[in-house]
Design a protein that fits this description.
Two copies of one chain form a homodimer.
Chain A lengths: L12 E7 L4 E5 L4 H8 L17 E4 L4 H4 L13 H9 L7 E2 L9 E4 L9 E2 L9 E2 L4 E7 L11 H13 L5 E2 L1 H13 L3 E7 L3 E7 L6 E7 L3 E8 L5 E8 L9 H10 L3 H24 L6 E8 L1 H8 L19 E4 L12 E4 L9 H10 L8 E6 L3 E6 L4 E6 L20 E7 L6 E5 L11 H4 L7 E2 L1 H13 L12 H4 L4 E4 L2 E7 L5 E3 L1 H25 L6 E5 H6 L2 H7 L10 E5 L1 H11 L2 H12 L1 E3 L5 H9 L10 H7 L9 H5 L9
Parallel strand pairs in A: 1-5, 9-11, 12-15, 15-17, 18-27, 20-29, 21-23, 27-28
Antiparallel strand pairs in A: 1-2, 3-4, 3-5, 6-7, 8-10, 10-11, 12-13, 13-14, 16-17, 18-19, 19-20, 21-22, 24-25, 25-26
Helix pairs in contact in A: 6-7, 7-8, 9-16, 9-17, 11-15, 13-18, 15-19
């Protein structure tokens, strides 16, 4: 057997190497590239099964790769373009320099590159806040089929011939078929003249069918919060987010906080039904918004994922939230739920399903499960603390060997509620504050304007939005800065104005208040406001401390702050305030909208569902209300700041460049935590 | 180790033998009988799990069994009755002499009898027409549970604790839970104070839940025919039929026969929907009838089975029947269907499912699958021919090694349609006929009167019901008798009256007719009527012959005639007429309502479902319209009678005692079948 050193052809065979996988093999001349790829297990997409219809199997001939692979790609390595390919290239569906893997056949040794967009199991590259890339392997995939027509001599059901084709062409044993598909099957097969596209879910159930070729299934990740709801529409094939939308939760008219809605449900006949119908209608509205935005038909939405806190989760599902409002705060189920979207009134394709991530415990919801999925602390050796602050703070602590979760009753202060000048994070809200420790004069930033308030151009630039209140992250900063500036005692008392002589400190009944902004409305930080923040941060810290105790660690390796609030707060101020435990500052970061990201992961990567279900089963659920130490930690954590390890460094780091040490450092010795 | 010859006690252990299973073992004194039975795998029922609530585990101490089992049961072999048992005995729930297996404990060597009604896997003894006993092992079973209440320190979902209890108490890994159950779960658990009964389907899904103890699940077997519909309500635990009801299929107003209904569906907008709604409403009416009759609540119906011909099957399922009306007569699916009853609008428990037996081919429906299940020809070495005559004749032929099925287009003559004096089998219809071969005088019987028409008391006794027409089985007999009496030529021509001089033969246009009854209305058998029966019997015979060819047999070992028509026709006359092939007369019998029996088997015995699905998959489907020989056989089978083997014997056997040989025997030599 002889072969030239420059060519691997022997007995009519050619060598092929696929990049980036590096998979290689020998094939007879004339083998289609797609067939070669499949036989080598190369990840090359195809919906139409090699019929030059879907254009998914585009490849490129790599030039100059011969040194690495010892193979030369030559101009004639692949067959010349046929009519089908030329047509698609003219139409622009096949890019210049690309070839259709199902049409091009091997003619000589060649290196073939499979670009990312032609791979089935591609990844979506993570965004800045996200912990990892998302693997794309959706539960719903499309398959184009040419089903044999029935013949009189060998009777068989239409469904059976279709299933046999799925097996023969795609190797899929699909035994299930949605009842609605079965009802339409005969007419669709005949309309499509036996050419149809089926949507197969979990590789085992046909959930939708169309005549002819259909290419793109879409999915929507839905995050239902007590205050706001959000949805992202994704292309299930590419993972791309095509549209996103948010809404206020319309249940707010039945009560600002969850407990008042639960009360509404209990006090009114049909109350639960009203709450359920309201939130389901809002989900449908979100579906309308994102499908319109993306120019996608509702019927092309074939999968949804749902996350939310336990009460929202239960209400969307039509399960009473009443048990979640009373001890022992029992969930109807802490398993994931997977059911037809129509069963909860979501109007998309009638074969579409909703996958709701599992709730973890009565106060730790599917939203936290989603955060967990997005953050994947179970993949790390480092001990992560993940905090998602809302009306409650959901806390997850641990690493690959153990995970613990709890919810701390922080109350709504971090959301700007129950604060005299508090407001939600919206344009006009103060979100950043600095106080000069010498003059006690403040400067601040409001949402919607990128200038500090002491910038000469601020008044003009912020005139449209105004200064309307202070949001949660602003409260964290102002209280921390007030403390650093010596305005607050370590126990949180606002010192009387005589101590500083500053006109910013004014009498407010029997106590004092700090005037942050003198405009109209004036923004004052009252003693009550400081107390509310103290209570909230103490609750959060006590919950974290409890988990650290249970895990047996005195320090966490990294802290991730999730959610809208987590994205806005400054880790340094949070640590000065004693909200979060001691940690290297460069290991404290925002996790962005981790719940939304987790919902999207569950939508795009089928394996993530079993993963999060297993993690939620093994997670240790800690009920703060049942833990004796919680109260003790809570009381101890009321002081400002309650920890010493890195306080000096921290205090320095929040100073503005060139400023002196804080008055707090000069005048007070921080008291530190009680010995515990 | 010593033991007295009369006692097996050793080291505080006693011996126990359970009858009828013969299972035996040694147990510590004080072991409850139920526990001993379970550890030995003895089939002893219990719903409440041994809490003296359900009274299902009743047993008896067998006396005098010591010689067989070498064990003496003595008066004190079991513990004395406690309070719970005495109460139940006073209430009559525990029979005299019976003990509760969960309460009575072993005290000395004993033989314990488990009566049939205390066994889980009992059998229902077959009725005269039925082929075998029915094993009772329903898909839905009840389990009584005492679920642990939730505790704050160890949060877990209500569903998860319930599932853990099912596992701990009953060894069941039930992962599924109907969404409706999940929605009610929390309130039912609390209403029942953590004591609930769950209905579990297929050992893997919770489909219903009640507070407290609930004992009896019910099911309904539904048979949807083109003309009539029937339902039987069964106790799923005992297998007992508690109520049965029938209705005319209200679709009849859209067309007497299937094809006119299919036309209606095609010609009218919403036509299919109207047909579907109509038949579903009728099923709900049947449910109303049988539940009322049995005094059972609709919500206690937890399972249904459905059989019917392909068109009825598809229409009930909301699948268009149009493809079944045109070649190649393609089913949407030839698999069994299992779906929530609510999905096809049947109003029973919302967790109930409908199991529709598989259709076999475009003209061989789920009703034939049910007949197959009832008759079980696949369990026999003997070759069975099973014929179910309706508008089409469904034919199954074979044995344990091979099974074939076909449908022959007999038309509606066997149902009394398209016959001049024809009518359905109903009171007043002539169903039995004898013709004196000498005088050509007839005598007959009508449905609803047990006297022959030549009985002096007949006129008076039949005066209420009258003589209104002739039904299918009457037509078989009259045509056979006309032939035996020499009124008919072998080619089916009615001989002119001059041949016999009988006033019973009268001119009827260019042909002749036989006057069967002179009353009002007069019942005449016209030449057209004879031709209609000839066509029908030729179609049936040709179908049978085709299957025999394919199976490679010249003779069948046994013939079972199914359906209402099959129950009424006389095998002998059918053979004289040449409807069915040669067979020992004592091997020809009625299978009764085999389709209904099959539906009941599928309802009561879960294993029967996999069995019939496997049999239907392996059955060879023969399309008569696609077989060349069919037409040839059909033409050949028009003659009367077309077979010779046992004709003389047969002809003799239909004579009345003491009569002479028939004129047919004297005058004609039967022509027999063409050589083929």
């Amino acid at each position: 057997m002889r072969s030239s050193p420059m060519s691997g052809e022997r007995q009519g065979q050619v060598r092929v190497v696929f990049t980036p996988s590096g998979k290689r093999g020998r094939f007879p001349v004339g083998t289609p590239v797609l067939a070669a790829a499949r036989s080598l297990g190369v990840d090359l997409d195809s919906v139409c099964g090699g019929r030059a219809l879907c254009s998914r199997c585009q490849v490129m001939v790599s030039e100059g790769e011969f040194s690495k692979h010892n193979i030369v790609s030559r101009a004639a390595s692949l067959s010349v373009q046929g009519e089908a390919e030329q047509k698609l290239q003219l139409r622009g569906t096949v890019a210049d320099g690309h070839r259709l893997g199902c049409q091009a056949t091997l003619q000589a040794d060649v290196v073939i590159d499979v670009p990312a967009e032609s791979q089935v199991h591609r990844h979506v590259v993570r965004k800045p806040d996200e912990a990892h890339d998302i693997r794309i392997d959706p539960v719903v995939r499309f398959y184009y089929l040419e089903v044999p027509a029935p013949v009189l001599a060998a009777p068989s059901g239409d469904l059976q011939r279709l299933q046999q084709t799925l097996k023969a062409d795609w190797g899929l044993d699909v035994h299930g078929c949605a009842f609605g598909v079965l009802q339409d099957l005969q007419s669709v097969l005949r309309t499509g003249e036996w050419r149809v596209t089926v949507a197969v879910r979990n590789s085992n159930q046909i959930i939708a069918i169309w005549p002819g070729l259909k290419e793109r299934p879409y999915g929507i990740a839905v995050d239902v919060g007590s205050a706001t709801m959000a949805a992202s529409l994704c292309d299930l094939t590419t993972g791309e987010v095509l549209a996103s939308a948010g809404l206020m939760n319309p249940q707010i008219r039945f009560g600002e906080d969850l407990m008042s809605r639960v009360s509404y449900a209990m006090m009114n006949p049909e109350g639960e039904k009203v709450l359920t119908d309201t939130v389901r209608r809002a989900i449908n509205e979100l579906v309308t918004l994102v499908t319109r935005q993306a120019g996608v038909e509702r019927v092309d939405v074939l999968e949804l994922t749902l996350v939310g806190n336990p009460s929202m989760h239960h209400l969307v599902m039509g399960i009473s939230p009443v048990e979640l409002g009373v001890a022992p705060f029992t969930l109807a189920s802490d398993a994931a739920m997977d059911l037809p979207a129509a069963d909860i009134g979501i109007q998309v394709n009638r074969g579409a399903h909703v996958y709701a991530l599992p709730c973890i415990a009565g106060h730790v919801g599917a939203d936290t499960a989603a955060v967990l999925l997005a953050e994947a602390p179970f993949d790390l050796d480092a001990v992560s603390l993940i905090v998602d602050v809302g009306t409650n703070a959901e806390i997850v602590l641990g690493n690959r060997s153990r995970l613990l979760a709890a919810s701390s009753p922080t109350g709504p202060a971090f959301e700007g509620a129950q604060i005299s000048s508090g407001q939600r994070a919206a344009p006009g809200a103060i979100e950043r504050v600095r106080i000069d420790p010498n003059t006690l004069e403040p400067r601040f930033k409001v949402i919607g304007c990128d200038l500090w308030s002491d910038d000469p151009a601020f008044s003009e630039r912020a005139s449209d939005i105004g200064v309307t209140g202070i949001c949660g992250s602003g409260m964290i900063e102002v209280v921390a800065e007030m403390y650093l500036a010596g305005i607050l005692d370590p126990d949180g008392t606002i010192r009387e104005s005589a101590d500083s002589g500053s006109p910013r400190i004014v009498a407010d009944g029997p106590t004092w208040a700090y005037v942050l902004s003198e405009g109209s409305p004036g923004i004052r930080i009252s003693q009550g406001d400081v107390r509310a923040i103290q209570l909230a941060k103490a609750a959060l810290y006590a919950g974290v401390r409890l988990l650290m105790d249970r895990l047996g660690v005195g320090k966490v390796d990294r802290i991730r702050l999730a959610g809208a609030f987590g994205s806005h707060i400054d880790g340094k101020h949070a640590m000065v305030l004693g909200m979060i435990p001691d940690c290297d500052l460069d290991k404290v970061s925002s996790a962005g909208n981790a719940a939304g990201t987790g919902a999207r992961i569950a939508l795009l990567d089928r394996s993530s569902r079993a993963l999060i279900e297993a993690q939620v089963r093994r997670i240790e659920k800690i009920e703060t209300a049942a833990a004796e130490q919680f109260k003790e930690y809570f009381v101890a954590a009321m002081a400002l700041p309650h920890q010493t390890d890195s306080f000096d460094e921290l205090a320095k780091s929040v100073q503005l460049p060139g400023r002196q040490a804080t008055r707090a450092n000069q005048v007070y010795q921080p008291r530190g935590l009680p010995n515990s």
